[in-house]
Amino acid sequence: MPMSKPGYVLLAFVASCLLSSTALSQTVGLGTPIEQTQLQNFDLIAGPDGEGLPDGSGTALQGKLVFESRCQACHGANGEGTGSSTILVGGNMQTEASPLKTVGSFWPHATTLFDYIRRAMPANAPKSLSNTEVYQVVAYVLYLNGIINQYAVLNKDSLLTIQMPNKDGFLDRSHIQ
């Protein structure tokens, strides 16, 4: 006697349960356990309060050299960008038109710039800049935006003193659940 459609469904369900329980009892065995030391450079977050900022320092003059060799291809010689998402300089958050969001007009904390560059730049080789090179590039980008002078030395202490133009443009809602 041929099996009905519901019978096939039941048979398929029972078979999949048996296969699943067999698969769960086997160890996959892929890879090796990760050591704590291997995770050391995985999560490189630098917070607005300076938590996570590393040692190192740099000036805009030093950063210009790094910028020219590692950043200019996407961000242009003076931070003008090669596309709308690569513009670093200019912008005005107080305009009635759609504002141009750049480091100088939008970003609330200089530490956010450090964090982003250290973890995501250059786009073709993220995390390839040394901490000192990141401080140098941050100094140069801040200089291009008229926020610091070219001789200012940035490090984990001085970076916290930078007053970004849009520092009061955000509401902290992190405490709301």
Would you write up a description of this structure?
- With 177 residues, this protein is mainly α.
- It has a domain of 119 residues: Cytochrome Bc1 Complex, Chain D, domain 2, CATH 1.10.760.10.
- The protein contains 5 helices and no strands.
- Helix 2 packs across helix 5 and helix 4 crosses helix 5.
- The longest helix has 21 residues.
- It is elongated and about 85 Å long.
- It starts with a helix and ends in a 33-residue tail after the last helix.
- The mean pLDDT is 85.
Could you name the CATH homologous superfamily of the domain at 43-161? Cytochrome c-like domain
Strand content: under 5%
Low-pLDDT stretches are none
pLDDT average, as an integer? 85
Structural class: mainly alpha
How much is the radius of gyration in Å? 25 Å
DSSP E strands, number: 0
Task: Report the span from N to C terminus.
Answer: 61 Å
Overall, the morphology is elongated
CATH first level of the domain at 43-161: Mainly Alpha
What is the helix tally?
A: 5
Order of helices and strands: HHHHH
Please bin the fraction of helical residues.
25-40%
